[in-house]
Design goal:
With about 260 residues, the protein is α+β, with helices and mostly antiparallel strands. The chain has 8 helices and 14 strands. A hairpin with a 2-residue loop joins strand 3 and strand 4. About 15% of the residues have low confidence.
């Protein structure tokens, strides 16, 4: 049981690891100790208040586009005091340094509620997404019409090395059946703002990412059609890879299917 001990003129409560765990205490909280009545004392946690500096940093982060949230760039918008507190907010997981994959050099800063539930690798602390499992063959292309009221859930594409899925249930099933491939990092996936699920082989993602980034570095901004024509890559594959690059913060979709390099 907890003991009250005296050390160097001060008094402390001494608890075992098991007692500390069972009481669900935290070293990150302050506690008040008061007498309720004879023989009964109360230990109460003092709820931390979010200070104005935290609110200012979080508000600033919300106002910035993805291109300004990139690791090493967002810090330039902070003053020295905010920079110190910003690093602490990361430690406290109130701000997350998010990387879609370890292949990317820099992450982007996000709030916990902005992190999508995983449709891919467990390493992103997200559940793999589901997709109707189809083997990908080098010369096979299966295109199914876009959803209509009469046919609301269809798979858009199953092509060599990547797949786009518009139906959530199909995405979940695919994710479950390909769990080991996601876990090993052989394939990656994400759910985009357009509501579709994009899956691609990691090797193909790396190859096409390099080509797209090299092109955008030289022209700064380009349309999906121009990139496809210039690189001789299918528009759907370009669009798929650009979804990953946008999520990572390497590029930004300035307007519909027009991409800009983030310097």
């Amino acid at each position: 049981m907890p003991k009250l001990i005296e050390r160097e003129g001060k008094y402390f409560f001494e608890l075992s690891v098991q007692e500390f765990s069972e009481l669900n205490l935290s070293v990150h909280l302050n506690y008040s100790f008061s007498k309720a009545q004879e023989g009964i004392w109360v230990l109460a946690a003092e709820q931390p208040k979010e200070n104005t500096q935290d609110l200012a940093i979080i508000h600033l982060l919300k106002q910035k586009d993805l291109k300004d949230r990139v690791e090493g760039k967002f810090e330039k918008f902070l003053n020295p005091d905010q920079t110190n507190r910003f690093q602490q907010l990361i430690v406290e997981k109130k701000i997350i340094l998010f990387k879609l994959s370890t292949q990317y050099k820099h992450g982007i800063y996000k709030l916990p509620e902005e992190i999508e539930k995983p449709i891919t690798q467990p390493k992103l602390e997200s559940k793999p997404i589901n997709f109707q499992p189809k083997e990908i063959h080098s010369a096979s292309v299966v295109v199914i019409p876009v959803s209509t009221p009469q046919n609301p859930s269809v798979i858009l594409l199953d092509q060599e090395g990547f797949q786009i899925i518009v139906n959530e249930n199909a995405a979940k099933e695919f994710s479950q059946k390909n769990f080991e491939r996601f876990k090993s990092g052989k394939i990656q996936g994400l759910k985009s703002f357009d509501g579709r699920y994009y899956v691609i082989k990691t090797e193909l993602l790396t190859q096409v990412s390099d080509k797209i980034l090299k092109s955008l570095k030289s022209v700064k901004k380009s349309t999906l059609a121009d990139l496809s024509q210039q690189l001789n890559i299918s528009p759907l594959l370009v669009k798929t890879v650009c979804q990953f690059l946008s999520e990572q913060g390497d590029i930004v979709e300035a307007k519909h299917e027009t991409y800009q390099y983030v310097s």
